Fold:
Amino acid sequence: LLWCKECDPLRMIEGWTSGNSVIDKFIKDTMYEMYDQRNEKYPRFLEWVPFDRFTDIKEISEGGFAKVYSATWIDGKSKFYKQYDGGWKKSNPKPMKVALKRLNGSRNMSAKYCSELKAHWDFYLTGYGTLKLLKFYGITKDPETKDFIMI
Structure:
């Protein structure tokens, strides 16, 4: 494994749940897969983010399948830096502006519905994601509607 003790991977992977086993597995799989990103200076993975970690939430747009909001993510994206010895060290994240896309009717996320999220994640991992055309940082849940939200 490439992880150092400072990274505390068990804290990232264990000790949380979205309340949906399909979503939990999807997020954890992206964390496990980052072990394979050996050539990446900053490996990419999804995070489960509690909804209370967002402030200044404002609706931007609404479509047939989703509502989009702007928000400030208090903790910002976790970043890990590859060390010369092959280990990883976590940086201090900073607040950042993000878009939140609430997926209407997603409270009972099925494996089929989750495949849409996986396709989005795979697209992010391609060159298009690295060109900053598309970002996908993690998933949260609307506490009122119980719908899942892409960050």
The first strand starts at residue 47 and ends at 48. The chain has one domain: 16-77+93-150.
